[in-house]
């Protein structure tokens, strides 16, 4: 989607959008010859300006016939404005409208920027594999002219636009099938970040063998795709922030379950088992894109989990890079095996002050929270509070779960230091307890189980059905609130 900013559009737009707050129809000044008619028609159609509500009609303006779309901004909060922008795009993206003008509608810069952010987020889709898509389903809207010249250079819009670009990278990585995105090609897609000033380090299989990453490599050994560890470092502080914030993502580019094979129904969903790594990559793009004043390193543990003659077996004991040994009871509990080595390597290499890891780790978190919150597991109340707050403001919500010695005990193994599954209940918590065993003393750590949030079966306010890009807006907000003052 191309956004341009002008006092008036260069060519006649196919439609013009106005933002209307709840019950604000009467007092709206649209600047149209037939605005009285528009107001009457909207009222008759019960348009009240509720968040996400839209009203469309056609009027004449001079000799031209123009489509008018009103979009409700409700109470005018951040999420309302984002949803209003999203709603316009959702209505128009495949409507035949090619060029949309957005009227600033008296919104202040912050609110207008949020509306545009919602529009940009909602406009992302992936049609590249649909060669026989009917004409009337194809995207038509490709150009948005914002009837405001200040906005173009406004920092608030520049920054939000960069965040939307980060979200788009995450959605792309998540949506691509596993024959296209596998460890090597995931890394390849992240190379573009280098030109934005991100320093990239890649570990191949041999290096990981030398480092003793037996847990990650055990997962990978059933696949013909070689694993990768990808680190992306952004320092916008010029060295002032010595210890980085580390973001660590689970990047299982496909999870068959391995020898503990998953049932076939819905297995195709496991192409998005790299959603944690995708969110980390997208966040790094967002931070670099808006030149965030923070030092952040994003690490992705990338493997494919396949059944094969060389695959690991239930009962195998592997030695992680930390030296701790793990009895692999279930080869489908592979995410924690990948993350434990990624987490250990990250702490050894970058000495972060704080680590936040993201993973589509357990089906159990979907049983607990559905698709409304990601689970947050944290060893520090302050960190948890700031993450939850960033979740609420950003629109990527979190809910905290407990960690205790009683849960931890469930993963003791009779033959090794631990096993990779716990008892019957609390599957998300015992998975988090497993990860915590790899967090070094003094490191503040949070694990976000995002299994219910990465993929949506129906469209949301700022995403279409499919990949949501969950985590990018959250982490960007978290960095802005806690590292950039
Ligand atoms: N990637 C899955 C978790 C998952 C399930 C994500 C559904 C998204 C949707 C993970 O690797 C897994 O298989 N977890 C197992 C753990 C179990 C074997 C202890 C699970 O949740 O069933
Ligand atoms: Mn699994
Ligand atoms: Zn998995």
Percent strand = 15-25%
Shape: elongated
How are the strands of the largest sheet arranged? Answer: 7-8-10-9-13-17-14-15
CATH topology of the largest domain: Aminopeptidase
- Assign a percent range to the helix content: 25-40%
Number of separate structural domains: 2
Average pLDDT number: 98
Number of contiguous helices:
14
Q: What composes the largest sheet?
A: 8 strands, mixed
Report the CATH architecture of the largest domain: 3-Layer(aba) Sandwich
Q: How many extended strands?
A: 19
Bound molecules: ligand BES, manganese (II) ion, zinc ion
Could you explain the architecture of this structure?
With 485 residues, the protein is of the alpha/beta class. It has 2 domains: 2-149, Leucine Aminopeptidase, subunit E, domain 1 (3-Layer(aba) Sandwich); 165-482, Zn peptidases (Aminopeptidase). The protein is built from 14 helices and 19 strands. It has helices at 35-44, 78-92, 109-122, 155-175, 183-190, 205-211, 214-220, 275-289, 335-350, 364-369, 381-394, 405-409, 427-436, 472-483, and strands spanning 2-5, 15-21, 54-61, 64-74, 99-102, 143-146, 199-203, 228-235, 245-255, 295-305, 317-319, 325-327, 354-359, 374-378, 398-400, 418-419, 444-449, 455-456, 466-467. Strands 7-8-10-9-13-17-14-15 form an 8-stranded mixed beta sheet, sandwiched between helices. Strands 1-6-5-2-4-3 form a 6-stranded mixed beta sheet, sandwiched between helices. Helix 11 links the parallel strand 14 and strand 15 (398-400). Helix 3 packs parallel to helix 4 (155-175), helix 4 runs antiparallel to helix 8 (275-289) and helix 8 crosses helix 14 (472-483). The longest helix has 21 residues, at 155-175. The chain binds ligand BES, manganese (II) ion (MN) and zinc ion. Ligand BES binds next to loops.
């Amino acid at each position: 989607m191309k956004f341009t900013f002008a006092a008036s559009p260069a060519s006649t737009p196919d439609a013009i959008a106005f933002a209307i707050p709840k019950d604000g129809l009467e007092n709206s000044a649209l600047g149209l010859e037939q605005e009285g008619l528009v107001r009457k028609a909207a009222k008759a159609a019960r348009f009240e300006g509720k968040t996400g509500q839209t009203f469309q009609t056609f009027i004449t303006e001079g000799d031209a016939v123009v489509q008018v779309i009103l979009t409700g901004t409700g109470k005018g909060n951040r999420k309302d404005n984002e949803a209003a922008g999203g709603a316009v795009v959702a209505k128009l993206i495949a409507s035949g409208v090619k060029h949309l003008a957005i009227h600033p509608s008296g919104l202040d810069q912050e609110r207008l920027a949020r509306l545009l952010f919602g529009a940009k987020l909602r406009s992302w889709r992936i049609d590249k594999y649909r060669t026989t898509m009917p004409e009337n389903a194809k995207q038509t809207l490709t150009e948005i002219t914002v009837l405001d010249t200040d906005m173009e250079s406004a920092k608030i819009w520049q920054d939000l636009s960069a965040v939307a670009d980060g979200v788009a990278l995450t959605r792309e990585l998540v949506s691509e099938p596993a024959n296209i995105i596998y460890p090597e090609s995931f890394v390849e897609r992240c190379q573009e970040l280098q030109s934005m000033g991100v320093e990239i380090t890649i570990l191949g299989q041999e290096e990981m063998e030398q480092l003793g990453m037996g847990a990650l490599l055990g997962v990978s050994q059933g696949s013909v795709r070689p694993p990768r560890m990808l680190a992306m470092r952004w320092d916008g502080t010029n060295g002032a922030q010595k210890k980085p914030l580390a973001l660590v993502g689970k990047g299982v580019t496909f999870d068959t379950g391995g020898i503990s094979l998953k049932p076939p129904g819905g297995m195709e969903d496991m192409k998005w088992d790299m959603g944690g790594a995708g969110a980390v990559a997208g966040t790094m793009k967002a931070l670099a894109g808006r030149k965030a004043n923070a030092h952040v390193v994003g690490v992705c543990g990338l493997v494919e989990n396949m059944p094969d003659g060389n695959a690991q077996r239930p009962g195998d004991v592997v030695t992680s890079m930390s030296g701790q040994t793990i009895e692999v009871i279930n080869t489908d509990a592979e995410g924690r095996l990948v993350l434990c080595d990624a987490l250990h390597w990250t702490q050894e290499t970058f000495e972060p002050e704080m680590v936040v890891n993201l993973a589509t780790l357990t089906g159990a978190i979907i049983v607990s929270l559905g698709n409304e919150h990601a689970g947050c597991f944290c060893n520090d109340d302050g960190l948890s509070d700031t993450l939850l707050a960033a979740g609420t403001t950003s629109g990527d919500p979190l809910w905290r779960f407990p960690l205790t010695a009683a849960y931890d005990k469930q993963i003791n193994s009779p033959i090794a230091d631990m096993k990779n599954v716990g008892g019957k209940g609390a599957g998300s918590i015992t998975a988090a307890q497993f990860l915590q065993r790899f967090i070094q003393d003094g490191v503040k750590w949070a694990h976000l189980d995002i299994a219910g949030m990465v993929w949506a079966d129906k469209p949301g306010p700022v995403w279409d059905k499919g990949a949501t890009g969950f985590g990018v807006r959250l982490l960007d907000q978290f960095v802005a609130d806690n590292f950039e003052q």
